[in-house]
């Protein structure tokens, strides 16, 4: 199995990259291939039912990092909860250096599998920034949106719309000088 990069200028093949050995057979089933991909920061992000996000250098095809196949802070392991062995993850929007990942399926049947996470990763290093329990749904149908620094999505677990972003980053305190000089 390979990911192949072509030049948009010439149409010539630039590189071909073999997926790592720890990629399950499910990695190739990612909603018709290209749907499990995003491009940003000089990287091609590739994920899917295999539960591992791969970040390839867009010019060379070399893997820069993977997410989902490590220990705490870098795992999508599902144990026996899913047939896939890992929670499927898909690249969503890439904004302000953050790659958002959702977990879902094309045609999930109730009850939805439990313990899915919405995730935020550093887009250049793959380091996990935060996770939040949630089923993001089919990322191309319901999808995620980002505006003014806030991620918005429908959580299929409770059918609520979530908006996630930074709160105030500073506190301002002011005082009055009411002291009289004698």
Describe this structure in a few short sentences.
This protein has no helices and 13 strands. It has strands at residues 2-6, 13-18, 37-40, 43-46, 53-57, 63-67, 90-95, 98-102, 117-122, 128-133, 144-147, 150-155, 160-165.
Uncertain spans:
none
Which sequence of SSEs, written as H and E, runs from N to C? EEEEEEEEEEEEE
The helix/strand class is: mainly beta
The residue fraction in helices comes out at under 10%
What order do the strands of the largest sheet run in, or round the barrel if closed?
3-4-5-6
The total beta strand count reads 13
Shape: globular
Q: Could you give a short account of the major beta sheet?
A: 4 strands, antiparallel
Query: What's the gyration radius in Å?
Result: 20 Å
Percentage of residues in strands? 35-45%
Average predicted local confidence, pLDDT: 83
- Tell me the distance between the termini: 85 Å
- Total DSSP helices: 0
Q: What are the defining features of this structure?
A:
single chain, 182 residues, mainly beta, four-stranded antiparallel β-sheet, 13 strands, globular
